[in-house]
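Notes to self after the Tuesday call (sharing in case useful).
The group wants a holo model before anyone commits to mutagenesis around the pocket. I volunteered. Ligand is pyridoxal-5'-phosphate. Logging inputs and output together so the record is complete.
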Amino acid sequence: MSSSRRQFLRFSAGVTTASLPWCSRAFAFQQLQSAPVDGDKLIRLNSNENAYGPSAKALAAIMSAAGSSNRYPRLQYPELIQRIATSHQTGSDRVLLGCGSTEILRMAASAFLRKDRQLIHGSPTFEAIEHYARAADSQVIAIPLSPAFAHDLDRMLAAVSPSTTLIYLCNPNNPTGSLTPRKDLETFIAKLPSSTLVIIDEAYHHFAGASSMYASFIDHPIHDERLIVTRTFSKVFGLAGLRLGYAIAAPKVVQKMKKFATEDNVNALATEAAFAALDDAAGVAEAVERNANDRQEFFNQAMARALKPIDSHTNFVMMDTLHPANEVIEHFRKHNILIGPQFPAMNTYIRVSLGRPEEMLAFWSAWDQLPYPKSTRHH
Ligand SMILES: Cc1ncc(COP(=O)(O)O)c(C=O)c1O
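Result:
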């Protein structure tokens, strides 16, 4: 890491957290503040990124596009929309691009929520939509996950009222890594009033493919005009730092949301990286397989310690430590390892993003140094 980059990290520790993944910004801020940060030594298992970086082809596209950074990417923008539409065998009028899928969530909150309207979401889940809903003065109803860590669709349905204009379903869910069965989602959606839109956040889609409980609502559509399905280039494609996401939705829904998009919300390097990444099926397959192996190894290590993580369909794992999560998080931070934030509803659980093998060795070594009697560490 260059010294200027290192200085930036030090600087940001004292001044701003704007560059950090915002869902955990306050938490990351606290982590960065409590000790000097050396970016070279930090092991970042806290934001569910792809620890291996973009594929070689995506990286080459980024490098060769860098010299054109003086230009707005206005020619590439409609081409990328078309490319994404083609990859999903849908119309380009159904594709909405965002500065990360986070911007898509903000657009949805801006377009469909306001005072006297209501968002329903699971708890815990990815928090961005809740924050944007509150910023829009909307009411927010959080429904705890079921004991199987699925969205509790019966309770969600019971909470629906005429003012419920948006429901957020993250599947697989962050932070639990768990699935809500496809057939249950279909039954639930069919019972909703026509005025209720549903976001299905498929950020971790590629890592869930093997489960018979899972089918993407993009790849296997139900042709319901109320659905907004979101995807991101931040996970399997390893492009979180370039900020690109998208939604597939009905043309009129796309039009309503697009009014709230930032002008030129997608950058020139992201568009070129995305073309290359979408053409690189082998790169995606490799990333999926590597993640499956890393996830299996995590479970092997956990089981060797008699731990029982929640079954994961993502590139991160959540598990009960039987101790206050904030203490465990702090222990790892002292070992220069960042893990996910504490989730109030599950305050003895930690969320660990899968890193490279050497990073996971460091994780387990730090785990083995937790200052708890071994008997209370085991299930
Ligand atoms: C479920 C979920 N949705 C959306 C995002 C946001 O991704 P991005 O804005 O990088 O596309 C994340 C990031 O961690 C996530 O976990």
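Two things stood out.
The chain is about 40% helix and 15% strand.
The radius of gyration is 20 Å.
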